[in-house]
Amino acid sequence: MPPSESPHAATVPPVEIVEATVPAVLDTPDAWPLHGVAAVSRACALENHGHANLAIDAAGARATMLTPAYRQVRRLVAVAPGARTADAVVGHAMVLLPQVGNVHTARVIVEVHPEHRRQGIGRALAEAVVDVARASGRRLLLTDVTYSPEPAPGPGTIEPPTGPGSVPLDHDSTRFAIAQGLRLVQVARHSVLDLPVPHETLGGLHDRAVEAAGSDYRVHVWHLDIPPEHLDSVATLKTRISTDMPSGDIVVEEDPWDAARVLATAVDLRERGQGRVLVAAEHVTSRSLVAYSEVVFPVDDPAVVFQCDTLVLREHRGRRLGMLVKTSLMAEVARARPDAERVHTWNAAENAQMLAINDALGFRSTSIEARWSRDL
Ligand SMILES: CC(C)(COP(=O)(O)OP(=O)(O)OC[C@H]1O[C@@H](n2cnc3c(N)ncnc32)[C@H](O)[C@@H]1OP(=O)(O)O)[C@@H](O)C(=O)NCCC(=O)NCCS
């Protein structure tokens, strides 16, 4: 199937915006948009971080578009008018449309290859993205922007209204975001933990957490498959984290999970070539899960691991359960991914408890990710 011509023709020559369709495989000519996405993503990641760990490749871009039951992902590329090759792609955009929970939002990415900036390509992509979001009935646009290194606070920076952190004013992304009518909502810290964590550090933190938790809790370590009797309980934790994470002044609705969604997510991860470790703490008396922490990793890239959610239900906080699940998780990562070199994580700058746990484990701040938003 050829990529469909999108109705979002750029208003600013000389680019044309084309929407990618999902190719059956990646080595056919119709997969060109996704190879173009990968090339631009890689160039932007190298510019920001000096490495491509955080870039999306063509397989990853395709995989995100395959399972639209819970979230639909649409991808747009900017090319010279009439061009239909990966080499001609100078910018890309992604629009993620949640299908359950927060269906009023669209999460977007707009990236222009560093060699093609300031020619109106970003604006053309941003306009197309707004069209897609509006046509899907979305009222709130959210986008996360990386800044590396983190700027020193003070003159020349702007701060979000409700929390700590700042972003540089004199920066392509900031100028662009302001020009697009976006406002800064929240600043998150992107940190990296070099692996392996020294045995004494991990062991010491783990032992203290075990002692504080006492005999009221039992730890479970799972990979992609979660035992059927725990699926509902994992779904409860996943639902709770959607509203328990700090979200600045953005109103976040509950994102409802059930056992079917937990199962579908594992299938999705497997199909995308991703592995996972999920560690949960069970409250022995009530037999329900009350805390968890989770990482995912590309099975074919042994060096890198991505930290996802960590949550302790409010009623069980203050007993070092966050540290318990996190240290158990890192021990399992060391066992299951012995060649892993680093774990990436992102935490809201105001999330002091989570940052304290990460600092104790040895995470170091490398860049920041700022969340911008705009009403549609
Ligand atoms: C931000 C980004 C997408 C801009 O792409 P671009 O093609 O260079 O942007 P455009 O040429 O369409 O610029 C549109 C407007 O943004 C503003 N702008 C963009 N870059 C700017 C800069 N370096 N200085 C001042 N204003 C700037 C201007 O108002 C510009 O309009 P103008 O050229 O008529 O003055 C690009 O720098 C990028 O990919 N950065 C990394 C990812 C990112 O930050 N994405 C944006 C998320 S909000």
From TrEMBL:
<dbReference type="InterPro" id="IPR050832">
    <property type="entry name" value="Bact_Acetyltransf"/>
</dbReference>
<feature type="domain" description="N-acetyltransferase">
    <location>
        <begin position="15"/>
        <end position="198"/>
    </location>
</feature>
<dbReference type="InterPro" id="IPR016181">
    <property type="entry name" value="Acyl_CoA_acyltransferase"/>
</dbReference>
<dbReference type="Pfam" id="PF00583">
    <property type="entry name" value="Acetyltransf_1"/>
</dbReference>
<keyword id="KW-0012">Acyltransferase</keyword>
<keyword id="KW-0808">Transferase</keyword>
<protein>
    <submittedName>
        <fullName>Acetyltransferase (GNAT) family protein</fullName>
    </submittedName>
</protein>
<dbReference type="InterPro" id="IPR000182">
    <property type="entry name" value="GNAT_dom"/>
</dbReference>
<dbReference type="GO" id="GO:0016747">
    <property type="term" value="F:acyltransferase activity, transferring groups other than amino-acyl groups"/>
</dbReference>
